Amino acid sequence: MPTVLRGGDKVLNLERKRLQDKIMAVCIPQVISTQPSWEEFVKTGVVKIEQHHLDFADLMCEIINKCEDALFGQLLQDMFDNEARDTQLRRVYDKTAKFYAMLPDEFSTQDVMRVWGYSKIVNASQRIKSLERQCAVEKLEKGKYRKLAKAI
């Protein structure tokens, strides 16, 4: 390809990937249409590629590459340049992790009710059972538990 490509450039890599399909869409029909015998091509499915086919492919590659660069080059460059600036980390608000951190190392069902804001002991018991299934707490005695992990 006659175009000078900058190594490692995301924009040009994206343009090169798109360029292949466009070149094939133009060159394959040209190769098929210039075969000496259409009947022979249909029978065998074999084409003879000659130097003028390769020259045509080079010319189409250069033309399409220049057109793509003129039409979309700056847009793609701006998109990649602004990618880091526009990206924001997705913030996840995890109540369970936050409230678990607020519990003391050894806690009671009442502590769970207070931290999570439960008004019924059933809800606190369900939360504790869930933490036990996750191996985050262990039962010491009835209504008394110990944290096994610093954070979840």
Order of helical and strand elements: HHHHEHHEE
Assess the beta-strand content as a share of residues. Answer: 5-15%
Largest sheet: 3 strands, antiparallel
Helix content: 55-70%
Report the end-to-end length measured between terminal Cα atoms: 54 Å
Which term fits the overall shape?
A: elongated
Supply Rg: 33 Å
**Number of extended strands:** 3
Mean pLDDT: 83
Strand order of the largest sheet: 1-3-2
User: Could you name the ranges where pLDDT drops below 50 across 5 or more consecutive residues?
Assistant: 1-8
Summing up helix and strand content along with how strands pair, one would put the structural category as mainly alpha
Number of helices: 6
Keywords:
152 residues, elongated, 3-stranded antiparallel β-sheet, disordered N terminus, mainly alpha
Task: Summarize the structure in words.
This protein is mainly α. A hairpin with a 2-residue loop joins strand 2 and strand 3 (144-147). It has a three-stranded antiparallel β-sheet with strand order 1-3-2. It contains six helices and three strands; from the N terminus they run ααααβααββ. Helix 1 (10-33) runs antiparallel to helix 3 (51-86) and helix 5 (109-116) crosses helix 6. It is elongated, with a radius of gyration of 33 Å. The chain has helices spanning 10-33, 38-44, 51-86, 95-102, 109-116, 121-133, and strands spanning 106-108, 137-141, 144-147.
